[in-house]
Amino acid sequence: MSYIPVIGLEIHAELLTNSKIFCSCSAEFGGEQNTRCCPGCSSMPGTLPVLNQTAVKYAIKAGLAMNCDINKFSVFDRKNYFYPDLPKAYQISQLYFPICVNGNIPINIDGKEKNIRLNRIHIEEDAGKLMHDDFNGVSLIDFNRGGIPLIEIVTEPDINSSEEAKAFVEQVSLLLQYTGVCSCKMEQGALRCDVNISLMKSTDTEFGTRVEIKNLNSLKSIVRAIEYEIKRQARLLDNGDRVVQETRRFNDNHGDTKSMRSKEDAHDYRYFPDPDIPQVNLSDEDLEAIRAELPELPNKRLERYINEYDLSKTDAQIIVNQKTVSDFYDETLKEYNNPKSVSNFVIVELLRRVNLGEISMDNLPFSAKDFATLIEMADTDKVSKNDAKKILRLMIETGKSSLDIAKENGFLIVSDMSKVDEIITMVLSENAEAVEQYKNGETKVFGFLMGQCTKKLKGVCTPKVIKETLEAKLK
Amino acid sequence: MDLKMISHLSNLSKLSFTDDELEKFSNDMSSLVKIVDTIKEVDIEYNPIADNKNIYFNDLREDIAKESMATENILKNAINSDNCFVVPKVVE
Amino acid sequence: MNVTNLKIREIRDLLDKKSFSSVELTQAYLDRIKKIDGELQSYITITEDLALNSAKNAQNKIDNGNSSPLCGIPISIKDNICTDGIKTTCGSKSLENFVPPYNATIIDKLNSQGMVMLGKANLDEFAIGSTTQNIFAKTKNPYDFSKVPGGSSGGCAASVSASLCAGSIGSDTGGSLRQPASLCGVTGLRPTYGSVSRYGLVAFASSLDQIGTIAKDAHDCAFLLNSIVGHDDNDATSLKAKTIDFASKIGESIKGMKIAVPKEFYDENNGINPEVKDTVLNAAEKYKEMGAELIECSLPSLKYAVSTYLILSSAEAASNLSRIDGIKYGHRSTKGETFGDIVRNSRTEGFGDEVKRRILLGNFVLSSEQYNDYYERALALRQRFIADYAEIFEKCDVILTPTTLSTATGISENIMTPSNIYLDNICTVTVDIASLPAISTPCGYDSNGMPIGMSIIGKKFDEATIIQLADAFEKSFDAISPKLI
Ligand SMILES: [Mg+2]
Ligand SMILES: [Zn+2]
Q1: How far is the CA of A23 from the centre of ligand 2 (A)?
Q2: Which residues of B36-62 are buried (b: 16+ CB within 10 A; e: fewer)?
Q3: Which of A53, A351, C162, C250 lies 20 to 30 Å from C237, alpha-carbon distance?
Q4: Residues C67 and C16: beta-carbon distance below 8 Å
Q5: Dist CA C2 CA C484 (whole Å)
Q6: Domains (ranges, CATH) in chain A?
Q7: Is B1 an interface residue toward C (CB < 8 Å)?
């Protein structure tokens, strides 16, 4: 039988603040074990949380980018449970009055738009990290990550396939990168996803029993976990069995999900307002100031590229899809305002090398200005199109400027017409036989003559000029 | 308060009781609950907004990272190894 | 001159006049502690070397003209306030060997002034309770060693009462400064919630916990408090209000002052001992003679005070004490194969019965099925208490109540029976619930010579007025010191 999957996501995103959410330890990724800890984030008796302003600001920025209502009064609550990575035995989170509510994010699948509604975005703290030592049968706890600010983005159950889930997570990631609040590096755990999933028949009026799959940390595992779970639940329902409400874990190696705990031993988190943290109020001015800090968001950028720069929708989308690429594109345009040509070079040449892993957009070995110089040289026939590609490769390899590379390697075309004339005349006189053959109608020797001229005119003019001059002289 | 509730609460609290203790605590808890039950007779509603301490965005801590504490001080009261706290292997 | 009998202001004066040195003074206290505290057990840890060292440094400061109000003054600190490098046990086996790597904010403040810490004062386990009896030390009442000193700041009160320090810093969650001060015949001051940083005070109930002072009189309490108040960036609940000199109104006339006397506090149906009631009402009459006006009033919600307090404080305590798991610090059980078992066994072995009861109660009132009936309702009642007090303060300047229903009980009698122990807090807890300041000062003695205390409750931030009133009474009152060596 066929079922409709009903899927809701909870996405945890680490915020790019300097300090942790409730203490002044560095919130940077990594670090030697337990070197980014203080009495506060290692939860010593007597310590107290002091809320980081930027964490609140970033949550609001994310909320605005995701079309949320921002709560002007929001409260932090304690979520109580014992786990080795949670040193206070409660996580400070927001239950009753989250910072953002009621958002929505449009996704696009094969040209079809769909709106995914958000229930809320709330602020909370990340937990520490456990490392398992099988040999000694112990787990080691590192609290460096403990207390890094997170937002949790919670959707309504509006997603109906793994494809939509993937598109949604990509869209969230894009918005977070544009607002600059999260690195979205899933391989570093900066973006993690819990999936709630149930199946229903098209004739059903109520959702089926749902299962939660915890802590998926790549797009691939989100897709695989959903697809596995759809099959598993469908098989159960086909056999007339019940789906059990439970939390499951996805195993990346096996590609399957395994039960962690059932509803019966589900936690009672005993949420209550944290008495150590005063409620946060936002004035209209605060909100406006934060809104004013929002950068141009991807949909606006897409419009600009299509409407103002006349890029094709596909090209515009490719550039917008990575904020670093889009920012670099815009910067390059500031130096050399030729949107189409730059877009071609970015998509065909730059992204090729990025995708080959030769360079990373986070850390380009050249500036946008130098990149602009290169494209401009190619466009104005100062270097050939083919040499432009070689120059880019050398820029990556040597870190030298495009102009220097062009000069050093003789790629630079001076377009000295008297010299062109002189050399072509010389070549023709040296190859009188071939000229004779050409004049007798053996036009295929043109290629030979062209080759001889090109050799001698390297760096003097473009092949186009050679061809034109040669044709004129042979007439 | 019955034994089932006490054992549920002791699980939440991460506390163990012997059978004898369970009996005793069950009695103690019953008297405690009797005291706190008096508030059930009041007709009253909580208004979270009234607890507003009027802390505004600008009152919050500025996002400046400062030096952390030396790892040995963080760990000095704990069983530790490899600069980490140590627990029996956690099976997830 | 017996220097240990002096008040803080007198010591300040004499230290500055070089009548004796801080080292001599500190040594005098240490000698007295050695003589008396073996039996009294007001200290859980005595920091003799540190004290003498601090005294030496303080004396240098004084000699160099760099003195400050508390420079060279020996005091005791309740053992739930974290001291860098010095055991902070909270009177619990669960933190028996816990040595904090950091100082509470108030310790840093006091150290920078050259305070001399004589030691850590005993308390009820995690400041939960009112008898100051725990597995490490069972503190006695200086007036009668067979009786309790009250609690949870019983070590603070007993050490001041027995002249084993010049003054003391403790904490008050439901009356923990005022009640022991009352039972030990000294003065205890709980300031407005948030006026002293809680950073480094091991939390019992975060929304109620408040650091305050115990001393020989109200003026000394104010003097001590002046040195520890103020906003702290490490405590988001600490107030940003401008600090004032708490002794500023001392000596001003109280003529025309309106003193509320809410009848429920004096109702014998609520269990007040007639001797206590009469003594406090006599004190009220004395204020009248000084020109104050007594105003009868009512606090009808008082009957819900203990329930509200128990729910709020137990819920917060259950959550606050969860971090004590034996993994990061504190007692770690040798039994158990898993993380869960070790945590469970460490907590089971580390906590005493009373703490366990409060944790169970706290988790009960917070559990998803009970939350609305208990915890949320208690939050609502807190709002009612705040409103009720605000109404009384519209017509009055201060409120006068007994501090306790009766004088100190015998240590052996103090086997926990919920009905009496918990209800005994009725006179003090509403102050904590409503975040108000209050001071308890001795106002008489019962037929056995045990001290009786009265409490003056003030408006938020109006400590100066309650200190003024307590001082006015103290000046007309012949206090009797405990008969010790
Ligand atoms: Mg969460
Ligand atoms: Zn920290």
Answers
A1: 5
A2: beebeeeebebeeeebeeebebeebbe
A3: C250
A4: yes
A5: 13
A6: 4-284 (no CATH), 296-408 (no CATH), 417-474 (1.10.10.410)
A7: yes
CA gap A22, C321 in Å, rounded: 19
Tokens of B73: 């001080």
Say whether residue A265 is in contact with chain B using an 8 A CB cutoff: no
Q: Are strands C451-458 and A73-74 parallel, antiparallel or unpaired?
A: unpaired
DSSP letter at B36 equals H
ipTM over 0.90? The verdict is: yes
Chain C residues with CB-CB distance to B31 below 8 A = 417-419
Distance CA C455, CA C180 (A): 12
Interface test with B, best of C360, C386, C422 (most B CBs within 10 A): C360
Which residues have CB less than 5 Å away from ligand 2 (the ion)? Answer: A 23, 25, 38, 40-41
Characterize the bridge pairing of strands A280-281 and B55-56: parallel
Tally A–C CB contacts below 8 A.
Answer: 102
**Helix/strand/coil for C72:** coil
* Chain C residue numbers touching A80 (CB-CB < 8 A): 318-319, 322, 366
- Which ligand has the nearest atom to the CA of A91? 1
The residue ranges of every structural domain in chain C are: 3-239
Residues A123 and A149 sit within 8 Å (Cβ to Cβ): yes
Residues of C forming the active site? 78, 152, 176
- Measured CA to CA, the distance from residue A93 to residue A78 in angstroms comes to 6
- In chain C, the largest separation of any two C-alpha atoms, in whole Å, equals 70
Binary contact (C236, A82; C-beta < 8 A): no
Q: Are C198 and C435 in contact (CB under 8 A)?
A: no
Report the residue of chain B nearest A27, measured CA to CA.
Answer: B65
Q: From first to last of the 475 residues of chain A, give the pLDDT tens digit.
A: 789 999 999 999 999 999 999 999 999 999 999 999 999 999 999 999 999 999 999 999 999 999 999 999 999 999 999 999 999 999 999 999 999 999 999 999 988 999 999 999 999 999 999 999 999 999 999 999 999 999 999 999 999 999 999 999 999 999 999 999 999 999 999 999 999 999 999 899 999 999 999 999 999 999 999 999 999 999 999 999 999 999 999 998 888 999 887 665 668 999 999 999 999 999 999 999 999 999 999 999 999 999 999 999 999 999 999 999 999 999 999 999 999 999 999 999 999 999 999 999 989 999 999 999 999 999 988 888 888 999 999 999 999 999 999 888 878 876 677 788 888 888 888 888 888 888 888 888 888 888 888 888 876 777 778 888 888 888 7
* Pairing outcome for strands C116-121 and C43-46: antiparallel
Calculate how far, in angstroms, residue A123's C-alpha sits from the geometric centre of ligand 2: 18
Chain C residues inside the 8 Å CB shell of B76: 99, 101
Residue C427: name the closest of C259, C178, C187 by CA.
C178
Strand-by-strand arrangement of the B84-88 sheet = A129-133, A138-142, B84-88, B80-81
Amino acid type, A78: R
Closest CA to A273 of B61, C374, C366: C366
The region, left, alpha or beta by phi > 0 then psi within -120 to 50, assigned to residue A89 is: left
Chain C residue numbers with beta carbons less than 8 Å from the beta carbon of B32 are 310, 357, 361, 418, 422
Compute the distance between CA of residue A359 and CA of residue A352 in angstroms, rounded to an integer: 10
Spatial strand order in the sheet of A272-273 = A90-93, A77-80, A272-273
**Of residues C233, C329, C366, nearest to A50 (C-beta):** C233
Report the CATH number of the C3-239 domain. 3.90.1300.10
Neighbours of chain C (3+ CB pairs under 8 A): A, B
Residue C398 sits at the vertex; the CA angle it makes with C392 and C399, to the nearest 5 degrees, is 70
